[in-house]
Design goal:
This protein has helices spanning 109-113, 129-147; strands at 13-14, 52-57, 60-63, 66-69, 74-79, 85-89, 117-121. The chain has 148 residues and is of the alpha+beta class.
Length: 148
Amino acid sequence: KQWYQRRGREAVVSTQSTGGDYKCGACAANTADTCQDCTGKTDSACNAVVETADFKCKNYELKEEKWVVATASTTCKALKATKAKCNMPGDKADKTYKVQNAGCGTCTDADKKAEKCADCEGAECNVKKSSAATFTFFALIATLYTLL
């Protein structure tokens, strides 16, 4: 379950389902992806239901020592006012790298700096340009072959 105790965090991107509990008090440790702290007032609560939106991101898997797009995309969840963001293995991602949130959201600063992760803005934007270019090239060749 995903729930919020809103205390000022801007956005949550998750692969978890929405719904769950709205409580008073601080979020538990290590729950930043499922809980938001907020500061309420004596006459109004801040932990009201938050509207979320779904979007898709590509997921990646390691095959034959190379990172490739997985067959199924991941359905991601974020606050409705948040722009869709996805991530993918970067140029220096090795076999020990773990794709973050199944492709949903942004990279950690450390992975981005080390070029192990790259992120982008927009639904299903996380396709490596070389993979997309190669696919387009072979699709064009197949089409020309069919026409001839």
